[in-house]
Amino acid sequence: MDLNIEDITKTVIKFCSQGADARMKFVLERLVTHIHDFARETRLTTDEWRAGLDWLEACGRICTENRKELITVSDIFGLSTLVDEINYPKPPGATQGSILGPFHTTEAEEKANGDSISHDPNGEPLFVLCTVKDTKGNPIPGAQVHVWEADSNGEYDIEKLSHSGPDGRGIFHSDDQGEFYFDAITPVPYPILCDGPVGVFFKLSGRHEYRPAHVHFMFEKEGFDNLIT
Known about the structure:
With 229 residues, the protein is an alpha+beta fold.
């Protein structure tokens, strides 16, 4: 079969449209179309194409159970935020959602209100008091809240070679007044891990690698939309 720059896209779409799943057909059709259009628009060179493949391969190689390089790639390209906005649009008056990020784990332990989530002796103590409310201002009792933050060096527990259990994270539940509270440390700004492909991207794009100081919260309760912020 002779293919040229004009008819290759239609041919590949035809090859990828033989499955029974209509949604998969549609997604693959649009994916192939946009990738091919990108190559045509930029007049992508063979060397650039190869460098891109090598970069993606490096992303896969560096990934581990706790090192989610491809999630970080999705985050820095804004794709994670866009998908979240498409799938979980917030009504007026609701807290804006954020992305889960690569450092959430299922290791967090259940905590009672007033407990501490951090064992970092060098962190500046911080008392956190929060109230969970609906868009009308009514308190929401019984909401499950996952909390996680980095230590005073800007590192999360799972990044450390000495990691042996959860630290800087916990699971709380709002009380009858919709409140939950705990001891933590004041968060600090920290750089995204730059010893791998993401670091290469930052250098090439001239983008800095720092994130502002923050604490992660994830709220869940039956009958309510989940919120990550």
